[in-house]
Amino acid sequence: MLSQESLKLIDVEVAKYPSDQKQSAVMAALRIAQQEKGWLARETIDAVASYLDMPAIAAFEVASFYNMYDLEPVGEHKITVCTNLPCALSGGVHAADYLKQKLGIEFNETTPDGKFTLKEGECMGACGDAPVLLHNNHKMCSWMTTEKIDQLLADLAK
Amino acid sequence: MSARNLILADLDGDRTWRLQDYLARGGYAALKKIIAESTPPADIIAEVKASVLRGRGGAGFPTGLKWSFMPRSFPGAKYLACNSDEGEPGTFKDRDILRYNPHSVIEGMIIAAYAMGCERGYNYIHGEIFEVYDRFEEALAEARAAGLLGDKILGSDFSFDLFAHHGYGAYICGEETALLESIEGKKGQPRFKPPFPASYGLYGKPTTINNTETFASVPFILRDGGETFLNYGKPNNGGTKLFSISGHVNRPGNYEIELGTPFSELLEMAGGMRGGRKLKGVIPGGSSSPVVPADIMMDCTMDYDSISKAGSMLGSGAVIVMDETTCMVRALERLSYFYFEESCGQCTPCREGTGWLYRVVHRIEHGLGRPDDLDLLNSVTTNIMGRTICALGDAASMPVQSFVKHFGDEFAYHIEHKTCLVPDDVQREGSKIYVGPSC
Amino acid sequence: MLEIEIDGKQLQVADGSTVMDAANQVGAYIPHFCYHKKLSIAANCRMCLVQVEKAPKPLPACATPVTNGMKVWTKSEAAVKAQKGVMEFLLINHPLDCPICDQGGECQLQDLAVGYGESKSRYQEEKRVVFNKNLGPLVATDMTRCIHCTRCVRFTQEIAGLMELGQAFRGEHSEIMPFVEKTVDSELSGNIIDLCPVGALTSKPFRFAARTWELARRKSVSPHDSLGSNLIVQVKHDVVKRVLPLENEAINECWLSDRDRFSYEGLNCASRLTKPMIRQGDSWQETDWQTALEFAATRLKAVVAAAGAEEFGALLASNATVEELYLAQKLVRGLGSDNVDFRLRQTDFSADAVSQGAPWLGMPVAEIADLNRLLVIGSFFRKDHPLLAQRVRQAAKRGLKVASIHPTADDWLLPVSARMQPKPSEMVAALAAVLKAVADAESKSVDAALTVLLPADMPAEAKAIADMLLSGRQSAIWLGNFAMQHAQAATLRRLAQEIASITGSSFGVIGDAANSVGGYLAGAVPATGGKNAAAMLSESLKSYVLLNVEPSLDSAAGERARAAVAGADFVVNLTAFNSPELRAISHVMLPVSPFTETSGTFVSCEGRAQSFVAVAKPQGDTRPAWKVLRVMGNLLSLDGFDYNDSEAVRADVLDITAFPVANLSNTLDGLTVSGSAASAGIERVADVPIYATDSIVRRAPALQRARDGAAPAAYLSAATMTSLGLNAGDAVEAKTEQGSARLVAKADDTVADGCVRIASAHETTAALGGLSAVVTLERV
């Protein structure tokens, strides 16, 4: 179900915790699985759960609790914009509006070509860098003026 | 000016996060001294107590006292956890500490583990700053390779290993027992206390949890003495503190200052008000601290006691500055939406109450307010506060109470006129606040 | 001890008590939803907030430990204000349509809303709607009503042993759910219906069948296993509508297995026999009791007179009452025969020669909590004894270590720290190895009669089990149903007795039915050389009396048992049900009451005699079997059938006030043991599936639709499957000396290599006969 590479990465995470606490690695394991598959289908969650010897519903609880896990398919590039108050005061909403207009989609939508999904994020802990957005969960883009958004979209479209 | 860099000292180089740079800045000197002199753990805790270092995560609990709660003679495993799950709107200091000075946190944790006899530690890092998580992993690898972590640290009998654990998008995991649940591979739902983590923590074992900045302050305290650290602040408010300034200022960012520095000076450091506009209100300690109107704020100094006297909290030192273009109903609506979104759903008042608060504020903002809505908001917040498992219920309520209290006229105007007191074009000038989908 | 004052009342409570414990002690009711005495503390509903001296905020009584000198007010203004505040939050998103809710009238939220709710809602926003979940055929959902107390989640994790439900998503979007398309398959699942304080989880079979206030509540005792769970049977117009647990801490605590809870559907099924019937040639005629009884008595007398009493015997259900069993054996003996038995699934009766009493658990069920070592021999423990396993599961959390010797390693949802998995034919050798290990370790000698069985060398697993037992402070050894039905059951029992004696363990037999103990006490076994069940079913007698027995499903012999009975000249069948099989083998069918329509007594595995009375009027012309047997005794002019009530019958058997009852014994001193016969070929391991144990359960439709009600298959380990050239999913023909069955091969690595697990007590496998036999499997 999961690739050997992913399982190897999960093993590294499992090793961080006491030997009788494999479940501790579930957050990292779900993240690794999502990186491989693009999103977390139910069978992917099931596979992670059985790899870690935990009930499937317990893994699903985790996957549905933390909002960086995608329980539905997303585009090749998921862009999450923070619109929380501090960011909004420094143009977070403008950035989101600009992205919506450029991509022609609203939050939680994917462009017809499957390239881009737009998400609204909550505080990313980088309010000083507003407007802030995340590319595919892990790459943070700071001070995203319209020019920088243009540049980012151009780079990603390549 | 009272800018004073202890944690962010000498971070001007290119790759300041590397072990060699940290060593060049005098890093790990405190740890080496402790190992070389076999300093008794009690002496370390005494030194931290002398510094009057107070928890930098928001609660301001004296760190030395917290460390002394750990059962020294407990036979089994004991754990140490660092709370780098910074997700309270306005807060972004720990990210910079981990980005530029990760070894200060590692050294602080090793010293803490030595003092409390912990065999293993975890640094819980906010999921959204994943690059910082990666960098912290690199720093851990460097420290391990240098014999600073792992078995028999620096050749002594003391062993301690430290690992990074990432969050993945849940504000509540910043609550220390939710954080422990999360490390255990569960939903981040806070635990009822007592028992406190010092007796029943990670995997049911005694555990101490401190904030990133708290740990980052420890090496200085052990190297230069608690007294020295205390003197950088003011009595009962020891040391320097990082303040994260966001919102309507010219230079948002982190500023390390001595506790007790006037707010006006801090505002000046941040480049003053954007566009020279007038200050309207400040949320001084992260989004859950009560908002303080401009006139009161300008008289405050930045320390636990002064901000508390002004009716708010220093919290994590996240200062959200709002100017006259801000519609306070919209601002509150956005914050209420945040708490509604982030409530873990475990206990009744918060699960049900945060949605109720958001919906009422949303209605007011959208011209559907009713005359008794402000009384209703106050009543609902009263029914939430103090009745939940963790502090999120209070955190969601305090902004509502304080916004309604200090900016009641704007709310009343909204209810009566079905529109904002601050005209839309003025709002746009200062960056309009958008609020998530209604539900 | 700690001093505490609650609402002005002073009391002392044990260290570690919570405010809720203390309040319960003085009878101060604190409103609550999530708190449950048998579950971990969640403190999430916040309904039990109380005022505590010096505490700045109200504290949850369920989670707040008592400190010495604490003062608590549960009904002060501050406390009630907090409680009312919580109640308002609980109600804002809860539908206020109690009249159409199945929980109406027995809803904790509804009850408490009367005291703590306002008459009108301040919440004017839209209410939350949550999609329902399919939890299977037993539990219905109405998830919009859920108040997120998580009792159900905690139950599956903590009591049932497997987390089948969770609270997914977060905040207001939280939902209680199973994983995707999964159902809740626990054999204890029905308890979440009782635990749910609102109408979110209700009984599917009972859905909208009656309102709680329309139901009469009557006490009874479960007939389905040897525990004797206490029941509240709820009846409307003499029809059983629902069964709930009657709390009894010493027996079932506050729980019921699904079998005990949902079997009542079988009582109301269409195949109930409600009129006496007489066979005339190949057709059956309904008749009145007098005609039927006179016909039965006259013909029986004639056949016995013609063929001799030794050609007459009685086969009795192991969940018949003590009174029924006693009168039935009395009737047999009155007619001059000693052919009587209720142990239809037993195959080795050599223990009878040396037995000194009824085999039983050897200890009170409540003392399981004190055990720290337990060896279970030959048992599908969790499915055979759901609530006993639950008790062991709880004890395991407190340090009880459990070992198993059994051909399958099915998941008991509790840690098994040592295990041997012999083939059925290797069971004796396995036990002998453990005996040698404990004897060697303790330097004790083994009874001379057993030394012949001791192996030369000893497998490591046997040593591990021995070490586990010997390291215990308080240990027990139990023989399960599989061991007692084994072809060398007596030898297994004798070996276990010896191991127990060397290790200082308590020793007992769990028993497979409600009256596994009571049948012995009633004398429903041969006493003077008469034929036991196996003998009566291997070759036809001339006449039989059957009491609630379906021979092909209730006996070890399967189809051959049916044929044996069918070969008789005359069969009187006392039965609650009608079926093609029963019609084919009987000559007269007398409709007798199931447990709900008669008074009677069961003696549980711990030697507890529990009497019960009828909870409903007998359906149609049905009569209690004890009365039918009494009248038959009279019609046959037998002495001692002049009972006026069932208590008088019982009094001839046992003293209801004694606990445990007299005449219990597990020892088999002097037994002639038999060694293992090595077998060639694949051995069958036959379980009696949880919803196939007796004629009532087999007719309960919802249970039959549950996962555990699935039709038998051929379960084999991957290695066995490979060795036979089979693949999972293959249709196979299983053959024994007796017959064959078509089954699907399924992979199951919990089955010992060289074995195939094929369930019995099912019409599709009845032709295979014997519970342990050599089986050949061929792909078809």
What does this structure look like?
The complex is a heterotrimer of chains A (158), B (439) and C (780). By secondary structure, chain A is α+β, with helices and mostly antiparallel strands. Chain A folds into 2 domains: 4-65, Arc Repressor Mutant, subunit A (Orthogonal Bundle); 77-157, Glutaredoxin (3-Layer(aba) Sandwich), CATH 3.40.30.10. Helices cover 46% and strands 13% of the residues of chain A. Chain A has helices spanning 4-14, 26-37, 42-51, 56-65, 85-89, 92-103, 146-157, and strands at residues 77-82, 109-110, 116-121, 133-135, 139-141. In chain A, strands 2-3-1-4-5 form a 5-stranded mixed β-sheet, covered by helices on one side. In chain A, a hairpin with a 3-residue loop joins β4 and β5. Chain B is an alpha/beta fold and 439 residues long. In chain B, 64% of the residues are buried. The model of chain B has no long low-confidence stretch (mean pLDDT 93). In chain B, the strands form 3 sheets. Chain B has a 5-stranded mixed β-sheet. A 4-stranded parallel β-sheet of chain B has the order 3-2-1-4, sandwiched between helices. A two-stranded antiparallel sheet of chain B has the order 7-10. Chain B has 19 helices and 11 strands. In chain B, α3 (41-51) runs parallel beside α10 and α5 (93-100) packs across α6 (102-116). Chain C has 780 residues and is an alpha/beta fold. Among the domains of chain C are: 1-75, Ubiquitin-like (UB roll) (Roll), CATH 3.10.20.740; 277-354 and 516-657, Rossmann fold; 365-487 and 494-509, Dimethylsulfoxide Reductase, domain 2; 683-779, Barwin-like endoglucanases. Chain C has 25 helices and 32 strands. In chain C, the strands form 8 sheets. In chain C, strands 14-13-24-23-22-15-16 form a 7-stranded mixed β-sheet. In chain C, strands 28-30-29-32-27-31 form a 6-stranded mixed β-sheet. Chain C has a 5-stranded mixed β-sheet with strand order 2-1-5-3-4, sandwiched between helices. In chain C, α21 links the parallel β23 (570-575) and β24 (588-591). In chain C, α12 (427-442) crosses α14. The longest helix of chain C has 19 residues, at 289-307. The radius of gyration of chain C is 28 Å and the shape is globular. The mean pLDDT of chain C is 96. Classes of the chains: A alpha+beta (158), B alpha/beta (439), C alpha/beta (780). At the A-B interface, α2, α4, α5 and α6 of A face β3, β5, β11 and α14 of B.
